[in-house]
Structures are given as C-alpha cells and as structure tokens.
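Still learning folds. Look over my entry:

…
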Amino acid sequence: MIQFACPSLPLRRVLFLSAFSIISGTTLVQAQADSLDDHKLTELYTPVPPVVTPGAKEGLPPSDAVILFDGKNLDEWVLTKDGTTPADWIVRKDILTVNKTSGNIQTKRTFTNYQLHIEWRIPSNITGSDQARGNSGLFLASTGRGDDGYEMQILDCYNNSTYTNGQTASIYKQDAPLVNACRKPGEWQSYDVIWTAPVFNTDGSLVSPARVTSFHNGVLVQNNFELKGQTRYRGKPYYKAHGPSPIKLQAHGDKSEPISFRNIWIRPL
C-alpha cells in the first residue's frame, strides 16, 4: 500500500498563507468594485461653466456673442484691399448688400477659434448659371488682400449645377457639402460654423491643420472636415503660417445680382 507523507508544518503554513493571499486579493478587488458604486466619486463640481443667455429665438445672438452686423452700420468692417478704409457695402432696412465695385470686406477684429452665425439671401430675380449665379464667399480666416484664406462657398444651387467642391456650403475646391440644403432664391438662408484654426510652429511648419464643422439651414454639411490648406482657384491648397485672422465676405466679380446678408455674430472660443 502506498503511503503519503503528511505535509510538514512549514509547508502547511505556506499553503495557508497562499490561500489567505488569494482571499485577501479577491476581497480587495471586490472592495474597489464596491467603491465605484459611490456616485460621488465620479461627480465634478468645479470649475463651474459660465452662464450664457441664449438668444430670444433661434438664430439670435447669445449674451456672450460679438455682434458683427445687426442692421445698423458697418462699424466692425473695413475694405480688404487696404485693411483700413471703412467698408462701404450698402446698408438698408437692416440688410447688408454687396457693393461689387468696392471689393471684399473683412472684420476689423481678428479671431482664432470660434462659433459663427451668418444669414444670407440670393436675390429672387437672380440670373446666370454655374458659378455666375449669386456667387460670394465666407472666408473663415482671411490671410491676404485678395481671395487668400479659407473659403466656404456661397452660391445659388437650388436649381443650378456646378462642380460639387464649388457648390453652396463646400470648402471651395476641397470638399463638397454632405448634402444640398439650399432654399429658393429670395428666401433667407443661414450658416452656423465651428472653426478650429490651424496651428504652426515658430519656423512656420504646420502643427495641426484647420478643421470646420458647419450647418446650412440647420442641416449638417461639413463634419469636422480637415482642410488641406488655403483655398485656391487654381492649383492645390497649401498652408502658409499665420496668426489670428479677420473674417472676410467676398464681392465676386460675376455679373449676377448682388446678394445680401444680415444677423452676423461670433463667439470666440
């Protein structure tokens, strides 16, 4: 008959301690899991977000917005051609209409990241086709006297075909909108834009590209799109280092009737 030796006292102590360690470890894990059931451990009370009063109705500026145009004057705008001459587009009955003879206008202030609201209207008697039909542009950051910068296209595409990366709400020559949300000429339309400016090293090299999320008439048309650089009519886009920049509105050289704007405000982020 085979006989098994009884474990020595030291070995029994080792086995006991091992079992105790396993039980203790399990208890510790259980205790940690139980502590997560305390809802207070995952609640934050500081910092407290500042209070912002929304506009009285949709589209109106909240309490912390910078008003760029409210129908009264163009005190916040200058001509792009020299950056100092007061803008002379036409202000009448709370509406701003493009003056094509004087060229683009831009904000006196400069911005980096922001939320922007702007409303625009294609004339009901619009004529022309393709890119020559109510053409204008919202430059999310203007970096020069001409059409330098990052352009979001304004155009009548309700019943007008053109290249898709040049139609309404496109990032011009870079990205077509997700959908065509145009209203008929004569009806007011809106853009709501979240702009994240590009970041550059001190040597001018790119750290992070510009990004844009935008809504056209409340419909998502650009979803965190990463820009390839500044928009260009010819050639590929590229980045050139810059800092905070003005926002620019384009007086396009086509011969169609000029478009109008109203209710422009911005929230620097």
About this structure: Helices lie at 9-35.
